[in-house]
Design goal:
It is a single chain. The protein has about 550 residues and is an alpha/beta fold. It has two domains: about 240 residues, Growth Hormone, Chain: A, CATH 1.20.1250; about 230 residues, 3-Layer(aba) Sandwich (Rossmann fold). It is about 50% helix and about 15% strand. The chain has 14 helices and eleven strands. The strands form two sheets. The protein has a seven-stranded mixed β-sheet with strand order 7-6-5-8-9-11-10. Strands 1-2-3-4 form a four-stranded antiparallel β-sheet, covered by helices on one side. Helix 1 runs parallel beside helix 3, helix 1 packs antiparallel against helix 4 and helix 5 packs across helix 6. The N and C termini lie far apart (about 75 Å). The N terminus is likely disordered.
């Protein structure tokens, strides 16, 4: 028969606040708790960064996604800290349960987001990636926020000390762990394991750390039934994470086919971006995706590249600089003109250049331009390359870069960037800029034009329509994206005078672009002008 406990003397601590019965010395116990704080903080920051990175890739606009994840997560951490006060009387069991749930949710969050993106494509719906991102940020934030009060209670139960000293010790371990997690994600987990496997392994480490602390150090605070349940729960979570890690390659292949179709030929994670090539064989049109965005479509790339290149080549064009364009397709159009002496391509990702050189379908499409001795490639950031370039180096500068609506490319559409491009132009030289779709995003298009004028350039905007629905930019990913822009917008610019928007009648015959069509499209673009837009700068991007 169990005797009832005698009432505690007035002023004495409750049973749950009494010193813990540890299997080790108190100093060793404190070290183990602080070590667990370190590991849990590192895992928590990896979850946070993984959500930001994956959301930026899947949804686009990294600034917005980072703001959403961080703000929701910090808010949820505050709510979780308040909620954890109710668990103080069962601090060890509560902490063990929280770490088990956090390991499962955080470890599987990347796969869940990618699965919803791949198989639904429902961006704004109830279960779309945007709302799922918020749900994961909220849940993970609640669980991380609940950790600190419970760990504070556990460390105080080992040996009572003043609150300021305990907080200092706990937060020191927490912040150092966050530093390690923050550095491990971009330099270790992401390049070596990828986002999905990295998140799964982080979840496993999280579960092991929590279970080891509670079942090893504070096991006497738990009933036999609680120890058994916690052990079973952790083994189940570890088993699920391990099974997911084993199947992650098959999952990625299936998800990639769901996104890009069944004829994926090349899929590379280069350290800069994901590069995917589909088609190009058995009569299927070649398609090149960079970070999920369709950058080249065999259906309509000729229309885009003829419109980008040939109006700028109507004049002196001995020396040509192509910013971006590592696929070689812009260079193919440049080399159709007589009198071209050199073509310098500045491409950030060397993997794209390798594919353009060696992939049979892509090299055939670009006319094997890299075999031409006039073509030289520099793998560098376009902004950095322009800063080191001597003045008056080129007759023509072609900016074949991602749309300005993509946050990573914002600096390449800034007043500072165009000022550097202006300096690189020889007298009478011309700069042409791919400025995004005009019909669908006129404000972005006219902001590019205003930014060029702010850099001291005279402009002639134009467009070309008839693009395939699949040539998606911005957040539209799948090849069948119905919301893909309907046209391409361009701006031709010169430092000396307003450039004449025309085609050289003595140069090659074009298949998709004519002088009457170019003139009509330019007139249609001018009718959509939005006046008074400010320029975009490095410190104040407007896109």
């Amino acid at each position: 028969m169990i005797e009832p406990h005698a009432p505690a003397p007035p002023g004495s601590p409750p049973d749950w606040a009494s010193p813990a019965r540890l299997p080790v010395q108190p100093d060793t116990g404190r070290f183990l708790v602080l070590s667990c704080v370190f590991v849990c903080a590192a895992c928590g920051l990896v979850y946070e960064l993984e959500l930001v990175a994956l959301a930026s890739y899947l949804i686009g606009d990294s600034v917005t996604q980072a703001s959403v994840v961080l703000s929701v997560m910090v808010f949820a951490m505050g709510i979780g800290s308040l909620a954890a006060k109710r668990l103080r009387w069962r601090a060890a069991a509560g902490f063990g349960a929280i770490e088990t749930i956090l390991a499962l949710v955080g470890g599987c969050s990347a796969m869940a987001l990618y699965a919803v993106f791949a198989w639904t494509g429902d961006w704004g719906g109830l279960w779309g990636p945007r709302w799922l991102l918020v749900a994961f940020s909220l849940t993970i934030g609640l669980l991380i926020g609940a950790e600190v009060p419970l760990l504070m209670e556990l460390i105080q139960r080992i040996r009572r000390q003043d609150a300021g000293g305990a907080v200092a010790d706990l937060f020191a371990a927490d912040y150092v762990g966050a530093l390690v997690g923050g550095l491990a994600f971009p330099f270790l987990l992401l390049p070596l394991l990828g986002q999905l496997t990295g998140a799964l392994i982080t979840g496993a480490v999280n579960a092991l750390a929590g279970a080891t602390l509670v079942l090893g150090l504070f096991r006497r605070d738990l009933s036999r039934r609680a120890r058994r349940l916690l052990l079973i729960a952790n083994l189940t979570v570890l088993g699920l994470l391990a099974a997911a890690a084993v199947l992650v390659d098959d999952f990625e292949r299936a998800a990639r086919h769901a996104v890009y179709g069944n004829d994926v030929r090349v899929a590379l994670q280069t350290g800069i971006q994901e590069v995917v090539l589909t088609g190009g064989t058995h009569g299927r049109p070649l398609e090149l995706f960079l970070d999920g965005r369709l950058r080249v479509s065999g259906h309509d790339e000729l229309r885009y590249h003829e419109a980008l290149v040939h109006p700028a080549m109507n004049g002196p064009h001995a020396r040509v600089l192509i910013l971006g364009g590592g696929d070689g397709l812009a260079a193919r159009q440049v080399l159709r003109h007589t009198g071209v002496q050199s073509v310098d391509i500045v491409e950030l990702d060397p993997a794209v250049v390798r594919l353009a050189r060696h992939d049979p379908a892509l090299s055939k499409l670009n006319g094997r331009v890299y075999d031409d001795p006039r073509v030289r490639v520099t793998t560098d950031d376009a902004f950095r390359r322009l800063r080191t370039m001597p003045p008056s180096s080129y007759d023509v500068v072609i900016s074949d870069l991602p749309d300005p609506g993509i946050t990573a490319s914002t600096k390449l559409y800034s007043q500072e960037f165009y000022g550097l491009a202006r300096r690189a132009l020889a007298p009478g030289g011309r700069l042409v800029v791919h400025a995004g779709p005009c019909a669908d995003r006129p404000r972005v298009f006219w902001t590019v034009e205003a930014t060029l004028r702010a850099a001291g350039l005279h402009t002639a905007p134009y467009r070309v329509g008839g693009r395939e629905a699949g040539f998606a930019a911005g957040p539209d990913r799948s090849a069948g994206a119905s919301s893909a822009p309907r046209d391409w917008g361009f701006v031709l610019a010169s430092a000396d005078r307003t450039p004449r928007l025309g085609l050289d009648p003595h140069e090659p015959r074009l298949r998709t672009l004519t002088q009457p069509g170019l003139t009509a499209d330019a007139a249609a673009v001018r009718a959509t002008r939005i006046a008074g837009l400010p320029a975009s700068t490095l410190v104040h991007p407007r896109y």
